[in-house]
């Protein structure tokens, strides 16, 4: 595995005279070196014979370090083919992957889906464990190998493989969530609707118990399902991380909510071997960072570049590894250490330096990259019991789907005249003259950066798409600025 890509490895086996034993070369790691005992035990348990000769196994290309236990099955099959215990033709144009138990059972390994994609690209058949992730791909013959003994039957050598299930297994049922469960907060629901329609980042700031987490946990209910290509891209990342992919294959967008104690490697990826982080596991989905100001400063700043580029590149001594990370960021934080700065019902006991220091942990550059800033206040006690009467997820989703459909139509029209890829983001927004002048005047008054201006214009473009307007009007810009310039809890 190299990021989410697979480097095919040729497992070459030679059985020759010499002291009996298995020698593995080609830069294998400890897990592969230990496979010698697993492979020998599995071959015997499957009814075959381990050759009483010297066996040399080469993993080519030899200049790439090999990791993981997925080489057990190809090494065992190579030994059986080299010793003529199975037909050598069975290893031709076939990609094997799987771990072996001592009794010969084939166990699944991480990265099954990208391995299947690699097999399809090389025109190979693909053989994996029966319990492996489903492979919802066309153009690749995929087979299940439950036990090494399936490669032989009494009366002759016959390969017995069953077609691997390409249909996703039933995903675990999620709790029924709906925005109607949230009493009040209609302005916040509108902000979530805009964010979902344009995949914009959103930051909520408010006191404890104001409903920030409750709102964020329901955003997935207004997002459209994954397209087929998006589902495959997201499922590949989860397969590499050995995470379930059934829900993603079924079209459910990933929703990741790491704890604020997460490290930088946990957020952006890392480790040995390199594993995708939470921002990559949220690819084509939502990354929710609760208690944003409590995260490590270095971890927060590390997500700035992926927010812009949609990918994260990790540099190591042996090269760069790139993971996709096109996610929608939703964050929530308290305005101060005690949480009650600006609250009408609780007195804040924090000093001004404490308040500024707490909010500055997020950092201006990251704040500048978040499109929608929202102040969330606690609702009156009398309205708490009105849950179930507010705007529902179905009502919010209707405008989200309409806005995305209109945006797709608009881009198709631009592509038809050849202007979509040649214009700057501001030009694609199609701002009316009055809207442009209004945006410039507010930017001068608020000292907005160039990035903030562009992102505000893009939010206004999303609002116009939801209204099915080809031109961005002044009212659209005004609503976008209203969600960009904060005047409530926590100050501006």
What features would you describe in this structure?
By secondary structure, the chain is of the alpha/beta class. Helix content is 36%, strand content 15%. The protein contains 20 helices and 18 strands. The protein has helices at residues 30-33, 35-45, 72-82, 112-121, 186-198, 212-216, 228-240, 246-249, 264-268, 278-281, 297-301, 304-309, 352-360, 364-368, 381-384, 393-416, 425-429, 433-446, 450-466, 474-482; strands spanning 10-16, 21-25, 54-60, 94-96, 99-100, 106-107, 125-129, 142-145, 162-163, 202-205, 255-256, 269-270, 275-276, 286-289, 311-316, 319-324, 328-333, 372-375. A 5-stranded parallel beta sheet has the order 11-14-17-10-18. Strands 4-7-8-9 form a 4-stranded mixed beta sheet, with helices on one face. A hairpin with a 4-residue loop joins strand 12 and strand 13 (275-276). The longest helix is centred in the C-terminal third of the chain and has 24 residues, at 393-416. The two termini are 46 Å apart. Mean pLDDT is 88; it is low at 154-158 and 488-492.
């Amino acid at each position: 595995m190299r990021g989410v890509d697979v480097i095919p490895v040729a497992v070459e086996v030679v059985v020759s005279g010499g002291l009996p034993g298995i020698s593995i070369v080609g830069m294998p790691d400890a897990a592969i070196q230990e496979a010698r005992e697993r492979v020998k035990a599995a071959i015997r348990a499957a009814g075959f014979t381990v050759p009483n000769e010297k066996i040399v196994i080469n993993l080519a290309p030899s200049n790439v370090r090999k990791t993981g236990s997925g080489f057990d099955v190809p090494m065992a099959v190579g030994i059986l083919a080299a010793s003529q215990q199975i037909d050598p033709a069975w290893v031709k144009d076939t990609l094997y992957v799987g771990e072996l138990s001592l009794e010969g059972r084939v166990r699944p390994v991480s990265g099954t889906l990208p391995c299947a994609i690699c097999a399809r690209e090389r025109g190979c058949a693909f053989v994996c464990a029966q319990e492996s992730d489903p492979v919802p791909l066309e153009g690749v013959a995929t087979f299940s190998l439950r036990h090494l003994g399936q490669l032989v039957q009494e009366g002759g050598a016959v390969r017995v493989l069953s077609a691997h299930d390409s249909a996703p297994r039933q995903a675990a049922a999620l709790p029924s969530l709906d925005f109607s469960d949230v009493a009040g907060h209609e302005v916040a629901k509108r902000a979530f609707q805009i964010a979902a329609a344009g995949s914009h980042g959103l930051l909520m700031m408010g006191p404890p118990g104001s409903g920030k987490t409750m709102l964020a946990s329901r955003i997935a209910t207004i997002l459209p399902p994954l397209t087929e290509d998006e589902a495959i891209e997201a499922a590949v990342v989860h397969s590499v991380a050995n995470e379930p992919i059934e829900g993603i294959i079924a079209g459910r967008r990933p929703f990741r909510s790491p704890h604020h104690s997460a490290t930088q490697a946990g957020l952006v990826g890392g480790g040995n071997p390199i594993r995708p982080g939470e921002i990559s596991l949220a690819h084509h989905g939502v990354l929710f960072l609760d208690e944003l100001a409590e995260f490590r400063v270095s971890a927060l700043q590390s997500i700035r570049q992926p927010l812009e580029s949609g990918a994260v590149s990790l540099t190591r001594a042996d090269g760069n590894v790139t993971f996709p990370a096109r996610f929608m960021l939703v964050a929530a934080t308290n305005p101060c250490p005690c949480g009650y700065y600006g609250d009408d019902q609780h007195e804040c006991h924090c000093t001004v330096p404490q308040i500024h220091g707490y909010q500055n942990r997020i950092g201006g550059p990251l704040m500048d990259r978040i499109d929608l800033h929202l102040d969330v206040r606690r609702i009156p006690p009398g309205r708490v019991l009105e849950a179930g009467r507010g705007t529902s997820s179905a009502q919010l989703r209707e405008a989200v789907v309409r806005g995305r459909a209109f945006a797709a139509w608009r881009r198709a029209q631009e592509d038809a005249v050849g202007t979509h890829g040649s214009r700057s983001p501001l030009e694609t927004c199609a701002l009316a003259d009055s809207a442009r002048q209004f945006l410039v005047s507010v930017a001068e008054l608020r000292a907005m950066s160039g990035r903030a201006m562009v992102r505000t214009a893009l939010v206004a473009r999303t609002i116009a798409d939801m209204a099915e307007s080809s031109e961005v009007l002044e009212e659209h810009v005004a609503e976008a600025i209203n969600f960009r310039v904060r005047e409530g809890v926590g100050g501006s």
